[in-house]
Amino acid sequence: MSSLTHLQRLEAESIHIMREVAAEAENPVMMYSIGKDSSVMLRLAMKAFAPGKPPFPMLHVNTGWKFRNMIEFRDQQMKELGLNLISYTNLEAQQQGINPFDHGSAYTDIMKTQALKQALDKYGFDAAFGGARRDEEKSRAKERIFSFRSANHVWDPKNQRPELWRLYNARKNKGESIRVFPLSNWTELDIWQYIYLENIPIVPLYFAAPRPVVERDGLLIMVDDERMRLKPGEVPEVKNVRFRTLGCYPLSGAVESNAATLQDVIQEMLLTTTSERQGRAIDHDSAASMEKKKREGYF
Amino acid sequence: MAHVSNLIETDIEQYLKSHQYKSLLRFITCGSVDDGKSTLIGRLLYESKMIFEDQLAALEADSKKMGTQGEQIDFALLVDGLAAEREQGITIDVAYRFFSTDRRKFIVADTPGHEQYTRNMITGASTADLAVILIDARKGVLVQSRRHSYLVSLIGIKQVVLAVNKMDLVGYSQEKYDAIVAEYLEFAKQIGLTNITPIPMSAFKGDNITENSPNMPWYTGSPLMPHLETVPIAAENPDAAFRLPVQWVNRPNLDFRGFSGVITGGTVRKGDKVKALPSGKESTVASIVLDGEIDQAVSGQSVTITLADEIDVSRGDILSAAGSPPGVSDQFEATLVWMNETALLPHRPYLLKIGARTVTANVSAIKHKVNVNTLEQLAAKSLELNEIGVCNISLEQSVAFDPYTENKDTGGFILIDRMTNETVGAGMIHFALRRAQNIHWQAVDVHKDVRAAQKAQKSCVLWFTGLSGAGKSTIANLVEKKLYAINRHTYLLDGDNVRHGLNRDLGFTDVDRVENIRRVGEVAKLMVDAGLIVLTAFISPFRAERQMVRSLLEGGEFFEVYIETPLAVAESRDVKGLYKKARQGQIKNFTGIDSPYEAPETPDIRVDTTKMSAEEAADYIVKVLEDRGMLTGGTF
Predict the structure, then answer these.
(1) Is residue A51 reached through a cis peptide bond, with omega within 30 degrees of 0 on the bond before it?
(2) Are B16 and A263 inside 8 Å of each other by CB?
(3) B55 with B163, same domain?
(4) Which residues in chain A have Cβ-Cβ distances shorter than 8 Å to B20?
(5) Residue B99: closest CA among chain A residues belongs to which residue?
(6) Which of B392, B407, B435 is the last residue of a domain?
(7) What share of chain A is helix, strand, coil (3-state, %, to 5)?
(8) Taking the alpha carbons of B293, B299, B304, B306 in that order, is the dihedral positive or negative?
């Protein structure tokens, strides 16, 4: 028998990690962000525990500003797979009117980072799977697969446990929790190839379609509902666009594209020359911004 | 991601199909601080077209700002991650990088070259198929190069590339290159590295990276990238016997009972006879599940296996080929790499994780440690951070294992500190120690419960702990008198007295303190077996040792009695005049002064001597024993 392909090795590693957490953590949860990485992570979780169901719930931190299409897709997926989803929103902040237009990076902190911490605390989750990959940016390249957070959800990059062979030490001190990244060793191309090979459903927003957008600070922002605040002179224009990353619609930049099928999307990805995260507004601050965010508890 | 292939534009489906069957090579790069590791990795990323335009623009800007390479692009900046490191200009941890070509996907572990980071290198190397050892052509084979090579051989990496870098700075001299290679090969032979491919290169200039360099026409071998693309990947333990450490028992309904895990050796087929270890029970593979059912699975795959018979298998057990099962033992010889600031102490209990099993273990002896620079064997009483030693390991229960050289997954283990939960050591099993199989516990008819019942009590240990001068001995003495007065059978083991006899050979270093407590714990255990109420009065400053004694005894037999006295109060009493001497520096390693005291977090009995007299404390302790039923015998 010939040796395994790279996707088979990656799949086996991710499944191993998930089973290890299920066995050792008291109350694990899987972060489900509805994006393509989450779709792959979900498929791997289904495989890991087949013919049973994953022995943990899915958690979606909902800022209230996700694309409507994402929420529809989420609910449909959960129903089809028969999984238990917890959708958590920082209601207090929502009532205070925190929104992506007025509150900039504070919005991301309050509705994503703080909300995530609140959700983990509320349900007492001691281990949370996240779909982050090491190829996304520099500080992630050094993060362990099992990444420990103090009781205040703080990451200390200087004090990480060595990870040898396939041996993961999941023991934690009182109050500590673990973020576990089963897709650590996958690259963006691996994700797409796996989606293609396994025929994994993804949110239709990844495919090009005519959508109403406005151009703002060099990004094409989709007018997804009536809450979108148009600046003077801005008139939504219908363009053929798709999204390379998904998040809150007022913060996600679309790209003009005609890639309407999975093959087209992968082809475009392979031919393109700007990196994936450029579409995310939060990364533009500074070189060390992601590391700082992660120390503070951003996933 | 501008992978250069016409197929992307012309036939994307064909392209995807061809890329589904790429293999995966994991490798590490190791070298000294300035050998140019990060530059080499940055160069490989660049050459494999894995750098986006925006990243390249940022890199050019960064290169100018940092000013390390003049106006040239500093590829190292692509790779050096965390903010703190970028400022220091060094790599301080293990970072993983990814690139791929049309033939292979690569995962690179970038591991640092400083002396103090053996830990990181071992970590990065543990998952690597190949090692690139960098040598600065100007400097030749350094002490660090030898150390890295030794670690590579220790962790069992079979393929090595000797990258003689910075050839541009020695005028691309073949003579220099040949001398370095000859010296290295001689050394490599000594440490058992045989499969070595030397390549002269300049990562900075790009010589012999993707194509043969016109600057070194005398080199006719393969450049680095083509070599990495074609070097055979040792499929995971292809010739090994079938092994599957069970991670998870999958029982979604009454009709399905599967055992899930990664196959870490060999192949398994439906109908194969398998044996579960350590129980030794046998059965036959009924089905193999990965998504759907498959007929066979190989090393490296995560699967779920169902068996034809209902045999008892749980997490931590190993399913193996019935004809060649792993060994089972509770004592091993192993090479241990210490990875924590707190030194390894023999006899201190740690958790040992091997496969999916975690058991309590201790290092019963350090045979020798290894000077990683000279490979000299040295006597050792403990192992410090980044030290490597050959040790005997003793486990509380037997586990299934293979020698590390035969199977990394069933032969490698980590040690975990029981208090901090940190991963403190990594071990590689050599062989089981036979002794373990020949000493069996002698079963006797008159046993502990009968002996204790005869004395109208339940046997136990009252473990008094606290600072010197806290009042441990005074209170323990009073408790014993009160128990004697009501006809109970006791024995008081006093710290000072024991040190006059049984432990006369021990001093006050951390190592000796641990051994002191271990011996006292074992003696106390024998006395508990004799049916006695044992009182011990030792400072016993470390939580781990008190925990060790607790674990020697059965549940409910160990009472941790914390005699709580503030340091200032104990020092002001200074009954034996010891604090005064310690303050003057006449006594070293004195608890509370220059040696730590780890107070119990949840003692079974707490006595605050600033609120209670010794007499009151003794009454209180006897009362607790009475309430817990320790002063009534069972019915025999």
Answers:
(1) yes
(2) yes
(3) yes
(4) 5, 7, 193, 197
(5) A187
(6) B435
(7) 40, 15, 45
(8) positive
Within-domain flag for B1: no
pTM over 0.80: no
CATH code of the domain covering residue B417 = 2.40.30.10
Residues of B marked as catalytic: 540
Closest approach of chain B CAs to the CA of A160, in angstroms?
9
The CATH number of residue B148's host domain is 3.40.50.300
- Residue B260, sorted as left (phi over 0), alpha (psi -120 to 50) or beta, turns out to be beta
B489 Cα distance to chain centroid: 44
Query: What span, in angstroms and rounded, lies between the C-alpha atoms of A299 and A147?
Result: 10
What is the DSSP-derived secondary structure letter of residue B344?
B
Q: For chain A, 299 residues long, give each residue's pLDDT as a single digit of tens.
A: 457 888 999 999 999 999 999 999 999 999 999 999 999 999 999 999 989 999 999 999 988 889 999 999 999 999 999 999 999 988 888 888 888 878 877 888 888 888 888 898 899 999 999 998 988 766 677 778 998 887 777 777 667 788 999 999 999 888 888 999 999 999 888 899 899 999 999 999 999 999 998 988 888 888 888 888 888 888 889 999 999 888 888 888 888 888 899 988 888 887 775 554 444 444 444 444 555 555 565 55
Neighbours of A257 (CB within 10 A): 20
Does residue B294 share a domain with residue B361? no
Whether B74 is in a domain gets the answer: yes
Residues B23 and B76 in one domain: yes
Domain count for chain B = 4
| Final residue belonging to a domain, choices B179, B209, B230 | B230
> Most B CBs within 10 Å: which of A167, A173, A194, as the mutation test of the B interface?
A167
Interface of B with A in 264-293 (CB under 8 A): 264, 267, 289-291
Domains of chain A: 6-192+288-295 (3.40.50.620), 203-284 (no CATH)
Q: Which domain holds residue B379?
A: 327-435
DSSP for A178-197 reads: EEE-TTTT--HHHHHHHHHH
Token pair listed for B295: 């007929």
Residues B193 and B252 in one domain: no
